Structure formats: C-alpha cells, structure tokens
Amino acid sequence: MIVKDMSAAVENQRTVEIELVNGHGGADPRKWEDLFLPTPLKLENRLRAQKIEARLSKLMLCGSTLRRVGEVFEKEIEAGLRQQPSSLQMENTYVPELPDGTEEGSFLALDLGGTNFRVLFLELKAGQLLREKVKHYHINDALRLGPGEDLFNFLADCVQDFLVSQSIEKETFSLGFTFSFPMRQHSISSGELITWTKSFNCGGMDGVDVAALLQRCLSARSLDVTVRVLLNDTTGTLVAGAHIDRNVGIGVILGTGSNGCYMERASRVLHWERPHSAVHDVCIDIEWGAFGDNGCLDFLRTEFDDEVDAKSLLAASFTFEKYIGGKYLGDLLTFTLSALARDGLFPADPNFRKLQTSHVSLFEEESCAGEVSRTLSALREACNSDLLSTADALVAQYVAHVISNRAAQLVSVCISTLLKRMDRPYVAVAVDGSVFKHHPRIAKLMNKYIALLAPAHQFSLMIAEDGSGKGSALTAAIAARMATRGVARL
Ligand code: BGC
C-alpha cells in the first residue's frame, strides 16, 4: 500500500504547502514556520488552554529548529561514514544488491528485536513468496536481562522446536538472522553487538559475534542450518520494500524502536574489510536511535524527555529513539500530563506505565473523530480517579497530538535529509513498525513534513510488511545469488 495515495486530501495539502515553501503566490515566510505547529488546543477555558500550550511549547518544534536538526544529522552522517566521532553508527551492512526477481529457494529466518521472537520458513520462487510458516516464541525477562549465552541457547531451542513441528529437522537450510540491535558488521554474515536497546540487556556479549554464537548453538543441537546473513530489521524492510517497488532506496522502522537505512554510494563509505571495487551502492544502517547521544541534540531536550530517559532500562543512551519510539511515547504522555498536574493544569497524575503508546494512538484517533469517551475512560483508569471531565480528555488528546507531531517531525527530518543526500529523481521509502501502522495520523504528518523539509524531492512512503521475515529470506537469497555468480563475499 502506498500511503501517499491513501488520501487525496493529504496530497492536496502537500501541494499547497509546497507552494508556500517555494514562495509561490507571494507567501509570507512566517507561514512556512506555522505549518509545523500542532493543531491548537480548543477549550472553553481559554486561559487554561493558553497556559497548557505555553507549558508544552518546548515540545513544539518550528521549521527552522527542524532545519537545524537536519544540518546536525547530515554532519553526523558524514562523520560516521568517515569513522570519526559521531552519534550515528553508519554501519556498512555489506548488502550491495536489492531483489531483482530471481530469488529462489527455501530459507529459515529468525527475527529478534521485540518481546516476541519469531522463527520463519519461507519458500521463494522467481522472487515471489510461495509458502511461509511462522512460529512466535515469548522471551521472558530472565532471558532478556540474563546472560547472552542463555538467550542464544533459547533461540536455538526455538529453531529446533520449529523444525520438529514442521517435520523438517533433518533438512539443510540457509538462515537469515534479523538481529534488530546496533552491530559492528564485519561481513554480510558476521557482526558484534554494540549495545542492547529497547527491553534487552543481556550480559557477557562484549566483542561476541552474534552470528557465530547462534551458529554454535545451532550446531550443538546437530541442526544442519547455516547462518548465511546477519541483518538489521531496517535492512530487511528496505529489501522487502525493494521487492515490491524497485525505486525503494530508504528503509525505516517506526515501532518499539526506530531506525533507518539507505543505499549509499560505496565510494562514500570508509569501513570495508574486503575488496569492494565492483560495488556501486551499499546499504548503510544508520542507527539513528542513538542520534544525539553525544549531546549534539541537547537543544531539543525537554524536562519530559529527561524523565523518560531516567525511567528507561538503558538511561543516557538512545536519545533520539526516546523521542519517537513506541517503547517511550506512552511514558512521554504520562510525564507530560504529570507535569501539567503539578502546575494545577490537569486534575490527576497518571500512574506510571498505565498509559502506553497504544493510548497515544487511541487519543489521536478519538481526537480525529471528535470523540472523547474512550479517552476519558482510559484516563480515569490510568489516574485511578473519577474526577476527570471532557475538557481534561481534550487536554490529554492535545498532549498526545503534540508528542506525536514532534515524533513525526523528527523522523521526517531524517528522511528528508536522506532524500537530499541521495538526490535521485524519486525515492520510495519502505516503512514498517507498530507506530507507523497503528498511529492514525503519523503517515499523514510524515508526508506533510517531509514535503516541507525536502520540497524539491519526490518521494512516497510505503508500508513494507515483515521486512524482518521476508526481507531476511530475500537477503539470504541475494547472498546465495551473488555466491553463484562468483562474487566474492564482501
Ligand atoms: C535498534 C535498531 C533497530 C530499531 C528498530 C533500535 O533500538 O538499535 O537496530 O533497527 O530499534 O527495531
């Protein structure tokens, strides 16, 4: 589905805005700044509305601040690619080709990144998915926070269980391992974890090659399974998207965590470990979740962000992800409402973790529909209070909108910077992740802000589902195809 085409209204709005940006019709430059503002808070008590808007003003980014973020992002990209100090990893994934419709074979794929771990069997013929079997396994806290060896042994147990359940445990398979964490990759099939993110924090993983560790655990169970590719979920999303539309050049995850990757000119990339003269473009995993970890984005940070960070599993890291990731938007909503409560602008304090990112989506959905009933009952439950009124529900919807608007703007800054950097006539952006799929306005907001920030660049946002599964199998097939052609492993 091409989100761009979902609503003619979005497109029309975009056209008007581009005209304003370009100054057609003698537009006042201040209008451009105004287009970044969230919808104002409308309350009968105008004074309360004004005070709330003022209290949240640091969460509202104007166009020039976003331009500044884009400039910092570009500088960090350059530094990362040159292996100079940068908050962006800019990791070479060693994926130099995208699907061309010749992908063939049966593959296993593992998807590790959220609380559920998936094992998949996928059969590809002429680039199309013929058959797919999937099994989900829950990863409990002890595994997510305990020794890394335990986690990887569990992963191998799950693969064994899956193969036995499909009666294919005696067969030979190539496996694509989607490991959705920052890695230092040494080739398309090897890499070390740099740091855990989201809800994982296993010990004993320093300097450990995660593909080799998985291979060891699989071999210890006498399974004839070879880990052929190790990839990030953004790479899988880009590859899965490129399978649908050849113009895909950027992959984005907007889910529990957030990240992006894109096809970069090989000549601009410094980190190679083998000869690569035949490579024209290569997929770079940006790891933009860590953007700002070196302080370069401190001008954006609010007291609400400080609270989210302080209460997170991995404090003082993954600054940018905490502004946009689904793991954090619910906490941001909670702490912002709590701050309003402290100032007497909201009647109750939500209990910690009672409001989730799904509530941000729900509040936005009701706000779009002009309703409040579900917002009100969710708030009453979260605050353990019956004192909340319709006006309070409108305030909570406004807070949800302000933080959603900022998240959409920040992701859009990254995408628009990449569009300018790639400078192609048209780029399709493959996006996956729960926030993108379930938040009622995020796609529309992103279309608007990307167009405002990169007005000269044509793009579309498309949902590329299951990059971590299908994208992983397709990447394994690409690696097999390159090997058949005699292309040396990068
Ligand atoms: C990880 C990335 C991943 C993203 C989305 C982040 O926390 O560092 O590697 O792509 O989450 O899953």
TrEMBL record:
One of its GO terms (biological process) is glycolytic process. It comes from Bombyx mori (Silk moth). It is an enzyme of class 2 (transferase). Belongs to the hexokinase family. Residues 250-478 form the Hexokinase C-terminal domain. It catalyses: D-glucose + ATP = D-glucose 6-phosphate + ADP + H(+); D-fructose + ATP = D-fructose 6-phosphate + ADP + H(+); a D-hexose + ATP = a D-hexose 6-phosphate + ADP + H(+). This is Phosphotransferase. Keywords: ATP-binding, Glycolysis, Kinase, Nucleotide-binding, Transferase. Residues 55-242 form the Hexokinase N-terminal domain. Pathway: Carbohydrate metabolism; hexose metabolism; Carbohydrate degradation; glycolysis; D-glyceraldehyde 3-phosphate and glycerone phosphate from D-glucose: step 1/4. Gene3D superfamilies: 3.30.420.40, 3.40.367.20. One of its GO terms (molecular function) is glucokinase activity. GO terms for cellular component: cytosol; mitochondrion. The keyword Kinase applies. Its EC number is 2.7.1.-. PROSITE patterns: HEXOKINASE_1, HEXOKINASE_2.
